[in-house]
Amino acid sequence: MAEFICLYGKDSAAIVIKQPKRSPLFLRMIVLVFAMVCGLYISSVCLKQFSFQTSQLVPTPITTRIHYPKPQTFNRSECGHNPVRFFAILSVQRSGSGWFETLLNSHDNVSSNGEIFSVLDRRRNVSSIVKTLDRVYNLDWFTSASKNECSAAIGFKWMLNQGLLDNHQEIVDYFNRRGVSAIFLFRRNPLRRLVSVLANSYDRYAKLLNGTHKSHVHSPEEADALSRYKPVINSTSLIHDLQETESLAAKALEYFNTTRHMVVFYEDLITNRTRLEQVQEFLNIPVKNLSSRQVKIHRGDLSDHIKNWEDINKTLNGTEYEKFLRADY
C-alpha cells in the first residue's frame, strides 16, 4: 500500500505519495516523527498568538486592600479598628471632577480632599509627592471634607497634568504598594469640556458674578449668568486638540493599567445614577443615595454656547468627531 509523507516548506505544505520499499515500518516511523514535529510547531504558534492576545486583556484586580491608619495629629478613638480604603480620582480639568467629588463627600464615610496637587510645592519632585500622599492616607490631611476618625474611604482628586504622568512609574509603584484604588473620570464629549475650559478661563478675569470668580455654582441663576458668555473656539486646531485630549486619556490608562482601577464617564453619572452605586461598591463602602448642591452651567444644545458655531459645525461635520456636535452632555 502507498505511504504518505507530510513535507512543510516555507509557504506551503505538500503530501508526497511514495511506494513502500524494503522497510515499510521504517517509513511509518518517519511519517510519525514528522507528524509529531509538525503538530508541536503548530501548537506552539497558536499558544504564542493566544498569549499575545490575552496579555492585552489583563483584568483589573477586583479585591481592595484595607488599612488601619494611625494618624499623628489625632486619635481615631472608637473607630481605630474600622478599616479604611484608599482612593484617588484621576481626571482632567473641567470634566466634572468637582461635582463628582461633592457626590462622594455626601457619603457619611468618605473623605475626598480636593485637588491637593494644584499647589506646585507638593508635586515639585517624587519625594514631595510621596510625602503629601503619606499625609493624606495617614488621615493627617485636614480639609472641610475630612471625616477624620470614622472615614471608611479616604482620597482626593488629581489632574493628569499635575505631575501624575510625569512621575507615573513611581506613583504606580506607590499605588500598588499602598493599595490605592484609582477612579478615572473623563468626559465622552471633549467638545463640551472645551467650552467649559474656555468659559472658566474667561471668568477668572471677567468675574461675571458680582466681581467674583466661581468655577462651580449652586443656583440656576448663577449658572445662567455664567453661561451667557459664549467662547470662540479655534476651528483650525480643533481636531488636533480633540485628538490630544483622547491621547492623554489613553496614555493615563496605559500607564496605570496594573493598578486597581475603574473608568467613569461624566455623562454616564448624569444619565445612569446606578453608576454611582458601582463606584461605591468599587470602594467597598455602604451604598447610599448621594447628592450635590452644584448646578450644571452649560445646559442644552452646544450651538447656544459657542459663538462661532457655524465654523465649528463645518469643521467637524463628516469627521469622526461629528457626533460631539449633537451630544446632550
How would you describe this structure to a colleague?
Keywords: Membrane, Transferase, Transmembrane, Transmembrane helix. This protein has 329 residues and is of the alpha/beta class. The protein has a single domain, classed as 3-Layer(aba) Sandwich (Rossmann fold). The protein has eleven helices and eight strands. It has helices spanning 24-55, 97-105, 126-137, 160-164, 168-178, 190-206, 220-227, 238-255, 266-271, 274-282, 309-316, and strands at 3-8, 13-18, 85-91, 110-112, 153-155, 157-159, 180-186, 261-265. Strands 3, 4, 5, 6, 7 and 8 form a six-stranded parallel beta sheet that branches. It has a two-stranded antiparallel ribbon with strand order 1-2. Helix 3 links the parallel strand 4 (110-112) and strand 5 (153-155). The termini are far apart. The model is unreliable at 1-18 and 41-59 (pLDDT under 50).
Explain the layout of strands and helices.
Blueprint (H helix, E strand, L loop, with lengths): L2 E6 L4 E6 L5 H32 L29 E7 L5 H9 L4 E3 L13 H12 L15 E3 L1 E3 H5 L3 H11 L1 E7 L3 H17 L13 H8 L10 H18 L5 E5 H6 L2 H9 L26 H8 L13
Parallel strand pairs: 3-5, 3-6, 3-7, 4-5, 7-8
Antiparallel strand pairs: 1-2
